[in-house]
Amino acid sequence: MTGDADLDREAPAFAADANPEAEFSAKASWSGQEPILMDTHVHTQHSDGAATIQQVEEACRRLDVGCCIADHNEIRGSIHLWERRQVPTLTSMEVGSRELIELIVFFDNPESCEQFFKENVEPYRLKRWYTFLPRSLEALMAGAHEHGALISLPHPYAWLWKNIRFGERRQGRVERVLEEIEGIEVLNGSMSPRANRRAWQLCSQLAKTPLAGSDAHLVEAIGSVLVGLEAPGFSASLFDQLKAGRVFGLFAFEPWSLPLASGWQMVRQHTRKLISLPVSFKPTAGRRMGWPFFLK
Ligand SMILES: [Fe+2]
User: Fold this and answer.
1) Is-contact 242 224, C-beta < 8 A?
2) 112 alpha carbon to ligand 1 midpoint, in Å?
3) Mean pLDDT of 260-287
4) What residues pair up with 93 in beta bridges, in sequence order?
5) What separation in Å is there between the alpha carbon of 84 and the centre of ligand 1?
6) Are strands 225-229 and 247-252 parallel, antiparallel or unpaired?
7) CA of 130 to the centre of ligand 1 (A)
8) Looking at 17-26, 48-57, 59-68, 235-244, which range is the least confident one?
9) Helix 110-120 vs helix 76-84: crossing angle, to nearest 10
10) What is the pLDDT of residue 167?
11) 264 CA to middle of ligand 1, Å?
12) Which fold is adopted by the domain 30-295?
């Protein structure tokens, strides 16, 4: 699907033991009517996380939960997990906009996810530094809705530019995002209780669907923050439940050390990318995008 061979490293051996026929073997006793717990925000080695897809799957099966892989501007891990059909999942990604705001987009099928990626993400990705695209929030949301996605705003009160109240110039666009999205992540494993509380208040005020995710960058954090959906299903019906906002609860089981370790994992991954010179950025409208331009 996408070209970077170095990120497909764990796929062949792992794929050999996949059993597409054994849909939901991890939940063999599942009746189809029980509630389901989902970690809606997990990172893997396809972006800045530490986990392979196999480790994600093992963690989900051990905890008996589902999860959505929301790698930064990347879908291969998410689609790989979906295709294996061993744990409940939706294809998804965390996409970063030109305004330095991130969105998580969930799709009801991998084809729509891939189409969105090909049209709105892949052509705009900068080499190596993948967190934010030179693409506006407006364009990303229009593209996502065109493919029937559910859009969620993760960690709205994160640090600095990831905080929706950071900088006056983009407030108009932020307000528009808040109008158009369906969900707000009110419980994020990397955020402080205060930031999560504020997110919850915002979500209640705007009557959006409350979502929860570990934002796991470590294997140990997967499944530590969960959203409870009223009725489970594989992919399409799970998507419908999420879209309809049928959430019955939010749960967190997180040791205090995880945010610190998770933060360190992110620093390691991003630093590794920054120092792996040479770094080149595509010139856009006559000037160089991204940073650090002095490394060129
Ligand atoms: Fe994230």
Assistant:
1) no
2) 21
3) 48
4) 105
5) 23
6) antiparallel
7) 12
8) 17-26
9) 170
10) 84
11) 14
12) TIM Barrel (3.20.20)
pLDDT tens-digit readout, 185-228: 999 999 999 999 999 999 999 999 999 999 999 999 999 999 99
Q: Are strands 36-42 and 66-69 parallel, antiparallel or unpaired?
A: parallel
What is Dmax (Cα atoms) for the chain?
59
Q: Token pair 């009801």 is at which residue?
A: 108
Instruction: Dump pLDDT digits (tens) for 100-137.
Output: 999 999 999 999 999 999 999 999 987 655 678 999 99
The single residue listed with the structure tokens 């609860």 is 249
Strands 283-284 and 66-69: unpaired
Tell me, in angstroms, the distance from the centre of ligand 1 to residue 69's CA: 9
DSSP notation for the chain: ----GGGGTTHHHHHHT--TTSTTGGGTT--SSS-EEEEEEE-BTTTT-SB-HHHHHHHHHHHT-EEEE--BT--HHHHHHHHHTSS---EEEEEE-TTS-EEEEEESSHHHHHHHHHHHTGGGPPSS--SS-SS-HHHHHHHHHHTT-EEEE--TB-SGGGBTTS-STTHHHHHHHHHH-SEEEEEETTS-HHHHHHHHHHHHHHTPEEEEE--BSSGGGTTSEEEEESS--STHHHHHHHHTT-EEEEEE---THHHHHHHHHHHHHHHHHHHSS-----EETTEE-SS-GGG-
Task: State the average pLDDT for the chain.
Answer: 80
Q: Is the pLDDT of residue 154 over 70?
A: yes
CA of 21 to the centre of ligand 1 (A): 31
> What spacing in Å lies between the alpha carbon of 17 and ligand 1's midpoint?
29
d(CA 96, CA 84): 27
Q: How far is the CA of 265 from the centre of ligand 1 (A)?
A: 12
**C-alpha to C-alpha distance for 182 and 219, rounded to whole angstroms:** 28
User: Token pair for residue 173?
Assistant: 């666009």
Nearest 5°: CA angle at 22, between 18 and 25?
Answer: 95
What's the whole-model pTM score? 0.80
